[in-house]
Amino acid sequence: MWVAVVGGNLQGVEACYLAQKAGWEVVVIDKKSSVPASGLCDSIIHSDVTLESEGGRWMKGVDLVIPALEDAQALSCLNQQTQAADVPFAFDPKAYAVSSSKMKSNRLFAQIGIPVPEMWPDCGFPAIAKPSNSSGSRGVQVLCSEVDYKRKEAVENSFKDWVIQEYIKGELFSVEVIGSPGNHHAVQITDLAVDEHYDCKRVLAPTTMSPEIAVELKRFSILIAGALELKGLMDVEVILQDKDIKVLEVDARIPSQTPTAVYWSTGLNLVRELAGIFLSDSERFQFGMPSPRGAVYEHIRVSPGLLEVAGEHIMSRVDSLHAVEDFFGANEAITNYTPGSDEWVATLIISGTDREDAWGRREEAIRDIRRKFELSTYYDRGPTR
């Protein structure tokens, strides 16, 4: 099968990696000449998909188009172009229109009774401010006091189009939901760790969440997917406050990071499952969930004398990532490392019989890398609050 992944940044890396694991031929479409996913595909075509004439250059013969970007104009153009060419488009525009806006998402949550952090101004300080139309950690700011609020309010134009909520210090989790209306499945819950910029640096599986709370999270997630009438794949991120789940955000598009962790833990390829929804004549599908193995997925940056665990933003700043098996003790890595390099980044992927075994293998891999490259300093920072 020939699959076009549109967008070569972090979502594109995820889509290409799992598409190749499915055994497909992959072409990346991106208007930039150099992108991180260019080393994880069979070919790359430089094209601006917002130009109507461009679709004909690369869409002929493509079996499926997978969008891996968050540009509203590009997504709208792709939707129109794929419909005109009668090429399946693995995307749900209506669900994405809600999930891409934190304001719209929060209104939906309120309508269906989904718990979220308390909203400003009732929440007091500290509070966390997020641009409504960004995802992940982009633009996130912590407001510690009234003085801090007023100072940042002036810079951010009165926080117009921002969502401000209670700052909660707790454990972070993610779960993917896949399917079509009336047939949604909440997949494996994964545990998340973030760096000092609130950018996800590590995904661990299986979860340490209690079975009772896990059942509640999956119930909430399927309720959200049903309200969105989701056809495709959605990511739900939550924080656990004591024993209460609070939903932080949803993203009805290809997530980065967590699908690969799920793949290494369970063998379930969410990109393959996503394709099945849009290529099958049937709106219904079923899949089994194998017993999970342990998996650790994390990003590191190496420079002379230093190994740093950091958020995924470090992976977006390099070109031509490639997959390497048996990478200094990791089962596999997605990296720009080449022999002789003293500055490089890698996403380490480590599997074990269970989570404890996987973490032990991760510790060994970090020690081996530090020893081989003589890295005396090690940083693994988290939020300061």
Describe this structure in words.
Strand 13 and strand 14 form a beta hairpin. By secondary structure, this protein is α+β, with helices and mostly antiparallel strands. It contains 10 helices and 18 strands. The mean pLDDT is 91. It has 4 domains: 90 residues, Rossmann fold (3-Layer(aba) Sandwich); 116 residues, D-amino Acid Aminotransferase, Chain A, domain 1, CATH 3.30.470; 49 residues, no CATH class; 86 residues, no CATH class. Strands 8, 9, 10, 11, 12, 13, 14, 15, 16, 17 and 18 form an 11-stranded mixed sheet that branches. A 4-stranded parallel sheet has the order 3-2-1-4, sandwiched between helices. A 3-stranded antiparallel sheet has the order 6-5-7, covered by helices on one side.
